[in-house]
Amino acid sequence: MPTPVILPRVDMDMETGRIARWLIESGASVRQGDALFEIETDKATMEIEAPASGIVHIFTPASGTDIKVASIVAEIRAPGETPTDAPVPQRVPELHAGIAAGHAAPLAEIEASAPPPMPSFAPPVKLLRATPLARRQAAIRGLDLTAITGSGPRGRVTSRDVETVTLAEPPAALPRPARIEVRETIVYLHGFASNSTAWDPLSAQLDADLPRIAIDLPGHGDAATLAQPTLAAMAAHVVAAVREQTSGPVHLVGHSLGGAIAARVALSNLLDVRSLLLIAPVGLGPVIDHDFIIGLLRARAEASVLPWLHRLVADPARISRGMVRAVLALMADPARAAFLAALAANAFPDGTQSADWMIDVTPLLMPVRIVFGREDRIIPFHPAARIGGSVAVNLLPNIGHMPQIEAPALLARILAEVIRSASIVNVQANASSGAPS
User: Fold this and answer.
1) Strand, helix or coil at 296?
2) Where in this chain does the record put each Lipoyl-binding domain (predicted)?
C-alpha cells in the first residue's frame, strides 16, 4: 500500500501551511529521510523528509495557497504498486469559495443580497512576509522590512534580501544597531565550506548557561561574499557581526579556517575576548590535505562530494545527508563557489597553508586551548606540539577533523573547562586591580 505524505503540524498552534517548493520531481525515487519539500508557516520554513523509500507521486504542487494540516500532498509507492486515488487537498476557502455543493448561488445574487459593507476607518494593512532570520537581521540593523523587496515565495523577504540592502548602504548612513547587553557570550566560527549549523551537536551538549552566537563566515551559509578573501577581511567581518549582537565579553570557538580567524580576532584586541578554543585550526603549520580542498571545490553531485566529506571524520557514518546537501547547495551557487575558490587560493596556495594565515597565540593572556583529533587527515596535529607551554593542547583518540560532530559531549566538557578557567582568571585580575568582580 502506498505511503501517504501529509502536510505536518510543525507548530503547536499551526492550522495551515504552504508548500514553498518541492525539492524533488514527481516520479523521482527517494530513500527514507530524504528531503521532499519545504513547508512555509507564519513562523518558519523547514524541510520535510520522506517517511518511506520508493517513488514519489506529487498531488499538490508548490504554490501560495494555504493547505490544512494533515492534508495528503503526495504518496510514495513501491515499484509496480497500484496508486490510490489522488486526494483533493484541503485548501483554506477564500471569498465566495467553499459554498457547499448543491447550495451554490450565482455570485451576483449573493452580492445583491449581502448587507452593505461597513465604512472603513483605517487603510488596509499590508501583509508583511519575511523569514524569522530576516526579521532578526532587520531588527539588529534597524532596517524597515516593509521597504525591502522580497525575493522569496510570494515576495517573502529573506536574509539575503536584508544583507543586500545593508551592503548597499554606506555604514555611516545606518542607524546604530540594537545591542544585547550580556555578561558573556559564546561565539562559534565554522570551517571551510561549512556553515553555522555545524555547531548544533556541540551546543546541544553544552551545559553553560550563556548566550551563543553561531556566525556564518563570508560566502558561507546565509552570509554574503567579500571583495577580498583575506584573513584580515574575514576577521573584520566577524568583529562587525559580533558587535551587532552584543557589546559584552565573548568566548571564541573556531574550527579549522574559523580557528585562524578566531585567533586573529583575539590578537586584534577589537573584542573583549575572555577565552579561545581552537579546534583543528588552520595556521599552526604549512601542511594541509590539498586533494581534499580541490576535490570539495569540484564536487557537484553526492557521488563526488561524499568521499571527500568522509575524509573529515574517523567514522563515515558521522556525515549526515543534511551536511551533504548543504555542501552541494553551496557549490551550486556560482558566486559562492567562486568566492570559496578564491579563498582557498589565498589561504592554501599550491596546497600549503599560507604564511599570511599563520597564527601565534602564545602572547595571549586569556585561557587558550587547542583540540585536535589524532585521526585528522586534513590538518596534522603535530604542529600543536610546538606551541608554548601557556597553551593547553588536547589530542582526542579515534577522532578526525571534526570533533564538534564526532565527540560533541567531550568537546562540550573541554569548552566548559575553558570558560571556567576564564572566570577564574577574570576574578584574579579584578582582585589584583582592586576592581569588583
Assistant:
1) helix
2) 2-77
Burial class (CB in 10 A: 0-12, 13-18, 19+), 7: buried
For helices 302-310 and 290-298, the axis angle rounded to 10 degrees is 160
pLDDT tens per residue across span 17-35: 888 888 888 888 888 778 8
Q: What residue type is 95 in one-letter code?
A: L
Helix (H, G, I), strand (E, B) or coil at 124: coil
Mind listing the domains of the chain with CATH numbers?
A: 3-77 (2.40.50.100), 132-173 (4.10.320.10), 185-433 (3.40.50.1820)
State the DSSP H helix or E strand holding residue 194, giving kind and residue range, or none if neither. none
Residue 48's region, left for phi above 0, alpha for psi from -120 to 50, else beta, is beta
Is residue 384 a contact partner of residue 339, using CB atoms and an 8 Å limit? Answer: no
Enumerate residue ranges in the chain where pLDDT < 70: 10-14, 41-45, 84-129, 132-133, 135-142, 153-154, 166-182, 426-437
Average pLDDT value for the chain: 81
**Phi, psi of 5, rounded to the nearest 5 degrees:** -110, 120
At residue 373, what is the residue type? Answer: G
pTM, to two decimals: 0.60
User: Can you say whether the dihedral through the CA atoms of 9, 12, 18, 24 is positive or negative?
Assistant: negative
| Tens-digit pLDDT profile for residues 307-326 | 999 999 999 999 999 899 99
What residues contact residue 261 under an 8 Å CB cut-off, 6+ apart? 189, 217, 231, 234, 235, 238, 254
CB 295 within 8 A of CB 263: no
